[in-house]
Amino acid sequence: MSYRLEAITRRQHLAFVASQPSVSHMQVPSWGDVKPDWRPESVGWFDEGDRLVGVGLVLLRPLPKLKRYLAYLPEGPVIDWAAPDLGQWLEPMLAHLKELGAFSVKMGPPVVARRWSAEAVKAAIADPRARQLRDVEATVDEPRAFDVADRLRRMGWQRTEPRDEGGFAAGQPRYVFQVPFAGRSLEDIQQGLNQQWRRNIKKAEKAGVKVVRGGYEDLPAFHEIYVETAERDRFIPRPLSYFQGMWTALRAEDPDRMRLYLAHHEGEVLAAATMLTVGEHVWYSYGASTSRKREVQPNNAIQWRMMSDAYELGAGVYDFRGITDALEEDNHLLGLLRFKVGTGGQAVEYLGEWDYPLNKVLHKALALYMSRR
To answer: What span, in angstroms and rounded, lies between the C-alpha atoms of 314 and 30?
Structure first.
């Protein structure tokens, strides 16, 4: 089987996404509108019967003063990663992007490599010998993923190694935490929460915490406590305009693509979060909380409301997104990992991001520049 790759329309792209049970929110056409510094292009793979069988959202970032681009497919492309010959999929993509002026291609295969149960993660956190999750025996190994990795290496792709500790680096997270919903009732999911989570949800309800859906006009309230969260958790916050653009772009494509939730208590917003949906996959995207009134447990309340709504939408998985891989007690992200583990889900490792240098000189220069940032 050989495939032809060409640029496709947003309508073609979105129709293919709608036919799939799960596609990353970073591989839908509207995600290109969220990233104004990149030039988006939708590409599609066609088989010998002229049927569209795969798609990808490519983000092109220009080099200053040069008509050369870094091509990036975040958590994509959407192809048959189990195919025996990945070259038939990826070689046409590389040729097409080279014609567009790309000097380097970065992609994030949506392929799961390993999974750890909540019990395994809790045991690892408690074990002083365990320094990183990647060194702990997995509950489930996915042999197909390691086969994919071997094939990519043979084709000349290079795995991007994270630059900073804890598994959080530029690009998309390699380690995430997910709660499986498929085949479970909402009562089953609730029973999967640990005792502390269930107790905190009841405490929030008894204290009068009200979780409501917000609109565009509520984004400034979200952003105010998001900035407070960034200062507390030591990350650089995005500007309010980013979230306003994200809201407008994603909801223009699908009204349920992005939602905003706010936890109120006695007239004050204590926590807020955004939720993204594509097919059967739902993500907790951005979260924010104030340091005030933590005793009324607004974070547990808002997450349970979002999980309940995700279930009503038919979600097969609720994705808490990135987690730290570092398990030392002095890691400031460990508390967030403990919070997510309390849902009874599983830690998931993806194959990570991979680079293909189309121009080795420019690719090396970019890597050197990024390492010094």
So the answer is: 22
Please give the model's pTM, rounded to 2 decimal places: 0.93
DSSP secondary structure letter of residue 308: H
The token pair at 333 is 């992200």
Rounded to whole angstroms, the Cα distance separating 366 from 353 reads 16
Which residues, listed in sequence order, are joined to residue 211 by a DSSP beta bridge?
263
Total residue length of the chain: 373
* Cα–Cα–Cα angle for 70, 75, 81, rounded to 5 degrees: 110
132: DSSP letter: B
Q: What token pair was written down for 334?
A: 């460990």
Task: Give 89's pLDDT tier (boundaries 50, 70, 90).
Answer: very high
Burial class (CB in 10 A: 0-12, 13-18, 19+), 173: buried
Domains by residue range for the chain, with CATH: 4-108+353-371 (3.40.630.30), 112-141+160-350 (3.40.630.30)
Query: Each residue of 107-161: pLDDT tens digit?
Result: 999 999 999 999 999 999 999 999 999 999 999 999 999 999 999 999 999 998 7
**Chain segment 275-291, per-residue pLDDT in tens:** 999 999 999 999 999 98
